[in-house]
Amino acid sequence: MAIHLVTTVDSDNWRTLEAMLSHYRNLQVEAFHVTLHLTEDDDSAREPVTEIMRRFGCPLYDVVTGDGESIEQETYARPRREYSRDWFILAGSDDLHQYPVQPEDLVRICESSDRECVYGGLVDRIAADGGIPELDPNRSLEEQFPLGATIADAVAQANVLKVVMVRGAIWVPQGQHFAPYANFCPLDTACVPVFRYKWHDPVMQTARKRRDLFRESGDPRGHEYERLLEHGELYGGFNIADPALRAAPCTPDYPYWAELREELKTRVVQTAASFGIRTQG
C-alpha cells in the first residue's frame, strides 16, 4: 500500500513548504509529488523551492508555467492518474492535516469498508494577536500561529470542506472540496482538521492579486477575497474578539472542532445536492 502526497507551490506560497513536507514525512508519507508553478513574468520561487527540495532529498515532480487557475486541476490530477490504485493526500503547501490516526491506518479503515475518500475541514491558524506577521523560519508554525479560527468560513464565506485523502482513480473537481462520485468515509468515523498556515506576509498582497484576477474573469471567488481584504484592512489582521471567528488556542486540539465537524456534515449534503446526488453526511 502506497500513500502519496501531491501539492503545487508558487511564488506566493512556497515559504511554508519545508515545514509542510517535514510534517507529512513524520506521518510516514514517502512519495511526494511537488509541482512548481511559475507565472510567465515571475520565477522568484524557482531558486528557494529547488533548494528546499534538494535538502528534503526529493526532486520536483514538475515545473509548469502559465495561468494558475487553468493548470491547477491538471497538476493535482496527473500524479493520481499514474498511480490510480494508490491513495493520495491532497494538501496545499500551507496545509498541515491533523489525522486522528496514522494515514496508513486510516487507509486500512477505509479499504475494509470500500471507502474511497476522506473529508476534512479548514481551520485557519493565525497569530496570537490576530495580526499578519512575517514568517520566522527559525520558529515552528505552531508556535507562530497558536490560534485556530474559521477565517475562510466566517470572513471569506468560502467552502471549507476539503478532500484530504482519496484513491488515485477518483475524480476530484478543481479546489479539492468534494469528490462527487466517491464512496466516502463517514465524518463520524474520520473528519480531518486541515490547519492552514497562510496568514503571514505577503498574504494580503496575494489576496489583492487574486481578487483582481477573479474580477477580470467574472469568477465569484473574487467576492471571497474582497471580504477578506475589507476585514483585514479594517482590523489590521483579524478581529479575534468576534465570536463568529471562533478564535481559540490549539493546544493541540481546536476546541471548536466537534462543532465545525457537524457543520461539515451539512456541507457534504449540500455540496452533493449541487451535483444532483443525494447523500448523508
Task: For the structure shown, list the relevant keywords.
alpha/beta; 9 helices; Spore Coat Polysaccharide Biosynthesis Protein SpsA, Chain A
Explain what this protein looks like in three dimensions.
The chain is built from 9 helices and 10 strands. The protein has 281 residues and is of the alpha/beta class. It has a single domain (3-274), classed as Spore Coat Polysaccharide Biosynthesis Protein SpsA, Chain A, CATH 3.90.550. Strands 1, 2, 3, 4, 5, 6, 7, 8, 9 and 10 form a 10-stranded mixed β-sheet that branches. Helix 1 links the parallel strand 1 and strand 2. Helix 1 packs parallel to helix 2 and helix 7 (203-217) packs antiparallel against helix 8. The mean pLDDT is 95.
Summarize the structure.
The protein has helices at 17-26, 46-56, 68-82, 103-112, 141-144, 151-154, 203-217, 221-235, 257-274, and strands at residues 3-9, 31-38, 62-65, 87-90, 95-97, 117-126, 147-149, 161-167, 192-196, 248-249. It is of the alpha/beta class. 40% of the residues are buried.
Helices, by number, come to 9
The count of domains is 1
Series of H and E elements: EHEHEHEEHEHEHEEHHEH
* Helix percent band: 25-40%
Approximate strand percentage: 15-25%
Backbone structural class: alpha/beta
- C-alpha-based Rg, rounded: 18 Å
CATH class: Alpha Beta
The shape, in one word, is: globular
Uncertain runs are none
| Mean pLDDT across residues | 95
At CATH level 2, the architecture is Alpha-Beta Complex
Number of strands: 10
State the distance separating the first and last CA atoms: 27 Å
